[in-house]
Amino acid sequence: MIVPGVTEAPRQGRAGQRPLVSIRTLSKKFSNGTLALRDVDLDLFPGEFVSLLGPSGCGKSTLLRIISDLSQPSAGTIEWPGADRADAYGKAEHSLGFVFQEPTLMPWAQTLENVTLPLRLRHMATGEANARAEAMLALVGLKGFEKAYPRELSGGMKMRVSIARALVTEPKVLLMDEPFAALDEITRHKLNDDLLAVWERNRFTAVFVTHSVFESVYLSQRIVVMAARPGRVMSELQVDAPFPRDNLFRTSAEYAHLCRLGSEALKAAIEA
Amino acid sequence: MSEPNPTSARGTDQDAAPVFSVEERFLGIPKSRWPGIIAPLVMGAIFLGLWEGIVRYRGIPAYILPGPLEILKTLGTDWPTLSIALWVTLRITFAALIAAVSVGVSLAILFTQSKWLERSLLPYAVILQVTPVVAIAPLIIIWVGDVNLSLLICAWLVAFFPILSNTILGLNSADHNLVALFQLYGANRWQTMRYLRLPAALPYFLGGLKISGGLALIGAVVAEFVAGTGGSASGLAYRILESGYQLKIPRMFAALLMISISGIAIFLATSYLSHRLLHRWHESAVRRES
Q: Is it true that the peptide bond before A230 is cis, omega within 30 degrees of 0?
C-alpha cells in the first residue's frame, strides 16, 4: 500500500499532461489600491480535484472570478491550452460551472426552472433541457423536488440545486466558492460525499475554495495553500489517498496526519 | 459506501426543509384571519348605530348631517345619476392607472439600460411628482382643451411616480451573484431582463401599484374638482360640488361613500393581485409555522 503523503507537487506532473487552465504571474489590483492577488502561478489539469485553502482575504474568490472571466486580471496571463472548442469570436469557449457561497437560486422559479436556466440561456429546446435537468437533479438526490420553490427547501437541498444547475451544462471545470460554509456539519459531510461521488462519475476539473483544512483534505487530490495581504500562493500539498473516500477515510490515522500537515501549511501561510 | 453513488437528500438535509402553515378555512378565508375581519366590521356597525341614534334623538336636519339610513336611501334614489358619475370617475382612474403602469415600467426599463438617460430624465419625473396636481391642473385644462383628456393627464401625473421609482428600485435589486451567473452563461440584455430583472422587480412593482391605484383615484377626483368649477365635468367630484351648492347634503355623502368604496375596492384588487403573483415565492406573502 502506498503511504499517502504530502509532497511539493511537481509543476509539470501528471506525466506531461497538458493543463486545462494555465495561470502565470497573475496579479489583481482593485481600484481602491488593494492588491488582491500577486504573481499567482497555477495549473489546473483535466479531471483533477483541487482545493484553494487560505484565510479570509487571500484572494481565493477573486481567483475564481478571474478564472470564470467575471473579473479581469491587472497583470499576468490566464490561458486555456486544453480547451478544444472556440466560439464564433475565436475565443476559447470555457465550459464552466460556478457554485457560489450562497445557493443563488431564483426565488420565483421552481427547482426545475432554476436548473434549466443555463440551458435556456443557450436556447436549448425545453424538452431536452428539462430531461437533462431532471437527470441532474436525480444525480444530486433531489428526484421528486422538481416543482418545489427554493423557499420550500432546506439549506442543504438548495445547495444541491445550485450544484445541479452548475453541472447541467456538463462543464469541464466546476468552480466552487466555499459552497458548504453556511451548512451544519452533518449536512456538509453528506454533501462532501455526494459531491465526490458526482465528481468520480463525471470527472470534471473541480476547483474548491474553502478555509477548512479538514474539508480540503477530504475532498481534494491537491491543495493550494494561499496567504493574504497580498493574496498569493504559498505552497501546494498532494493528497494521494485513493478514491472513493468515505467515513473510514474521515476517521483514519492518515486523514488526521494529512490534516495536521495541512494545518501547519495553513499556519505558515497565515504567519508569513 | 461501496461504490460512488450519491444517495438521496432524505435522512439529512431534507428533514430541515421549512414547514408552512396549512390552516382550516371558512368561506375560503383562513380561520385565524376572521377576527381581523369581524372586529372592524363590529366597530363600524357600532359607529353607524351611534350616528343614526344621535341624528334621530337630536333631530338634526338632513341638510346639516344626514343619518346613515338617509344616505343609503339617497344612494338608492339617486343611483341613476350617481352611477353614471361613478362610471366617469372610474374610467378616468383606470385609464390613468394603465397609463401610469405602461409609462412607469417602460421608463424604468429604459433607465436601467442607460444610466445617462436616467440621470437626464429622472429629475424631471421628480419635479412632476412634487408639484401639487391642484396647482397645475388649471394649466393642463387650458392647454389640452379636452376635459376628459386633461383629467386623465392629471390623474396620471399623480399615479405614475410610485410605479416608476419602485420599478427602478426593483430592477436594480436583482441578486448580484445571479447577475454574475447570467454573465457567466453569456446571457444577452434581453434575457437578463426577461429572466432575472423583471421577476426580481415584480414585488417592488406591485408595491408601487398598490400606492398608485389609490393615487389615480385621488388624482382623478382632485382634477375633477378643479375642472368641475368650470361646470363641464360629470364625475363624482362634480356631483359633490353640485350637491354642495344645492344643499343636497345626503347626496353629497352618498357620492363620498361611492368614492371611498371605489378606493377600498381598488386597494383590495391590487392586494389580491399582489398575493396571487407572489404567494408561492416571496417572503412577504409566506406564513411560516413557528
A: yes
Range of the domain at B53: 24-60
Ramachandran area for residue A3 (φ above 0: left; ψ -120 to 50: alpha; else beta): beta
Q: Which of B2, B3, B183, B185 to mutate to test the interface with A (most CBs of A within 10 A)?
A: B185
Q: Give me the residue label for grid cell 359633490.
A: B240
How many Cα atoms are found within 13 Å in the side-chain-facing hemisphere of B163? 26
- In this structure, is the dihedral angle defined by the CA atoms of residues B150, B153, B157 and B159, taken in order, positive or negative? positive
Q: Indicate which CATH number applies to the domain containing B224.
A: 1.10.3720.10
The three three-digit cell numbers of residue B44, written as one number: 363600524
A198 contact residues in B (CB cutoff 8 A): 6
Q: Is residue B12 part of a domain?
A: no
Long-range contacts of range A196-199, CB-CB < 8 Å, 24 or more positions apart? A196/A49, A196/A243, A196/A244, A196/A245, A196/B4, A197/A244, A197/B4, A197/B5, A197/B6, A198/A139, A198/A140, A198/A163, A198/A167, A198/B6, A199/A49, A199/A174
Q: How many Å apart are CA B29 and CA B270, to the nearest integer?
A: 18
Q: What are phi and psi of A24, to 5 degrees?
A: -130, 130
CA separation for the pair B257, B268 (Å, rounded): 16
> For chain A, first and last CA: distance in Å?
35
Q: Looking at residues B43-66, what average pLDDT do you find?
A: 93
Cα gap B109→B205, rounded to integer Å: 12
**Domains of chain A, start order:** 17-95+171-271 (3.40.50.300), 106-170 (no CATH)
Same domain, B49 and B150: no
Window 182-211 of B: residues touching A by CB (8 A cutoff) are 182-187, 191, 195-196, 199-200, 202
Mutate to test the interface with B, among A98, A106, A180, A198 (most CBs of B within 10 A): A106
Q: Measuring CA to CA, how many Å separate A31 from each of A34, A36, A68, A217, B211? A: 7, 11, 20, 35, 41
Give the pLDDT confidence score for residue A91 in this predicted structure. 47
Can you tell me the distance from the alpha carbon of A9 to that of A221, in angstroms, rounded to the nearest whole number? 10
Cα distance between residue A93 and residue A87, in whole Å: 6
* Mean pLDDT by groups of 10 residues along chain A of 272 residues: 42 64 90 88 92 88 89 88 56 75 93 94 91 92 90 90 92 91 87 90 92 92 90 89 86 91 90 80
Give yes or no: residues B36 and B88 share one domain.
no
H helical segments located in chain B = 34-58, 68-77, 79-113, 115-130, 133-144, 147-171, 176-184, 189-192, 198-228, 236-245, 249-278
